[in-house]
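Co-fold these.
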Amino acid sequence: MDPGTLLARITDYASRPDPYPLYAELREAGAVVPQADGSLLIGGYHEVAALLHDPRMSADPRTRGVETAKPPFLRLDDPEHHRLRTLAMRPFGPPHTPHRVDGMRAEIENITKELLAPFESGGQVDVVDDFAYPLPVTVICRLLGVPHEDEPLFRAWSDTLVASADVRPDASSAPRDEAERARQEMGGYLVGLAEQRRDDPRDDLLSAFVSEPDPELRLSREELAETAVLLLIAGHETTVNLITNGVLTLLRHPEELDRLRREPDLMPRAVEELLRYEPPVHMRERIPLADFDVAGTTLPRGSSVFLALAAGNRDPRRFTDPDRFDPTRADNEHLGFGSGIHVCYGAPLARLEAQYALTALLPRLGTAELAEDPPPYRQNAMLRGPRHLTLRF
Amino acid sequence: MPDDLTDGRIVVVGASLAGLRAAEALREQGFTGSLTVVGDEPHPPYDRPPLSKQVLLGVAPADSTGLPMRLDPKAEWVLGVRATGLDPLGKRVLLDNGDSLPYDRVLIATGTRARPWPNPAEAALDGVFTVRTREDAAGLAAALDAGPRRVLVIGGGFTGSEIASACRERGLEVTVTERGPAPLVGALGGTLSKLAAVMQRNHGVDLRTGVTVTRLLGEKTFTGVELSDGNQVDADVCVVALGAVRNVEWLADSGLAAGPRGLACDAGCRAFDMYGIVTDDVFVAGDVSRFPHPLFGYQLLSLEHWGNAVTQAEVAAHNMVSPGPMRRPHLALPTFWSTQFGLNIKSVGVPTYSDHVVIAQGSLEARRLAMVYGYRGRVTAAVTVDMAKSLDYYQHLIETGAPFPPPPGAADRAIAAEIPIPSDVPDPSVLSHGPTVALTGYLPDRRLTVV
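Predicted complex below.
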């Protein structure tokens, strides 16, 4: 088929259960594959990795001349990106807060145990609704300092925003002004919470953001809103898919499931392999800031370049036997968390959550049966994962 | 030598990073014969980078830096024994305990040692240290724990600068003396060394440049130094950070091409003999080696880099068990890192192989930048300060021989990126310490000076 239609075929909902043959077609079609709509699609590991590190590739949609509000740091370039990411990182990770994530181990383990209740009773559970969604939501709420009872509120905003963040946002699902309104409301809500923390600080990120004594290091109100929205959404949307994809993959590979049960110490490596084999984030868009060549094709300034991380993860020029799920894989520098300056900020937390979640589920998966394979998927092609994953015991 | 390269007797001389990684790689590559690793220190292999950082800060004890093994190389470890000679005809490694070890193939990975203070009597004063071994670092850490009034560091290279940084972080007064114009100048050239000088002074280091130490003072215990400018500095602790000496003396009668700049080898890690003829069964890896690199004019490089010890050991091990056509060259780009004064400095390529530099991203004022080095219109190195995630991009430019200055378009490209300035790489002979990379042919901006 025409490689110029690959992006359209990948984003077609019918491809959601298994986009990997299309990724193989993409890698075989060349290093840079121009699409009918003028965008460019790239799926080779080495090309994707190089472009993720290339300072001439912008993440900021405004570089195309589109007037919008300042995006969150995920979609900013250095030096703006560096400043905001560094400020957001201060209360979250090293060097200023080296133990924040590690200190959450006991809490993550407890939350996981609480969520396991329905798995004991027999019958039927939905891994997404009953486990993979509530776990990261509870964790990110505690981390940020968001009351868990407000979950229905931000779930609606989050759904709207995630739909608008697709490769090709479906016009009917999330018109731009609806997404904008969700962003405003969610930002207002989180800034409101942060204001309360100013007088009543606790051990959470919102408190840390508003109690920074150095004015140079303080986020503006607008920056705080954007950052908090980003952390709340990114803090759970992707982890849901990581855990659910993990359960599905293990059920599809019973021999590996058995092995993990016998050798639970393999779990950290199994999670790395999941991030390669079934990553939650399949694509990122970048915009060249200058005309330049990649493998003989010019990336024109201002064009849309889609970097297919999930295709790179299965590139046979980089990984031995790439379509095999191998939890003992030694050489596994995957693109599951991206790479370069935008490399996933929450990666240490995501790893921990997935490790605890899958370890807790291991004893229960032996007798589990998938109600549907493939399961129904979410609409989004960029953040790919099952909408439901029903298990019978 | 047996026909089957995966069998026979292999001796690895040197039980540090390169020796360990080579031993592991030999087994990974299928070597099933007898493997002996000889080391002059009594300890199993340990890691050195933390010795001038975490250990001096008191956050890690010196004996906690043992190197993890990727797999048990099932080797016989002969530790605390020094190799005293190599008999290439009899194929034996001679040891200081009178034994000798027969080999079919031998890997030389004896590394370097700290360059001592030239006056032995002064060097023997209590309170005078070098930092190379675990014991050195433990001794200096204890001396810093005792709360000296001032520490004097001789030499502003990476080791000296990291030690000064650790002292300041502990709140100790410190003086650094550097014979060149600024700290790190030998490794990074003129422009970045100015930033290094500013950082040291901003962090309260008493930095003296363009001077040498002429005498260490004290009867039995170190009390201070005399400087070439006539000044005197009182201090309780003296750290001699004058670079490293390659451990090649034991090869003096071996007929191999070993000298002060290391043991020369080909791109496949096979040692040369003194006539420049490549040997079949003597391999070399790590700090003690010098090897030709095509990206840097095939000059022989001597590197004191952690990453080079690892990659060269792996290539050497592969080639020791592989027939000729299956052998691989060691072409990895040199990389190194340092943390000091709150900055993360990373380098790829060979900064001293340069005639010009530009600040391609960021700025000196922001203390966050990518400096790109070029030689005759080609990118040859990059150094980032607190911007390490950009390094892969520059590595690609170096590997592909991209034009210098680097192409425009970077989001945070500095205005300065359009104006190449001289790289100001000094003649190594004016430095008080050795640079961490030595080009052992000629220096590119000093074509007429053989060094």
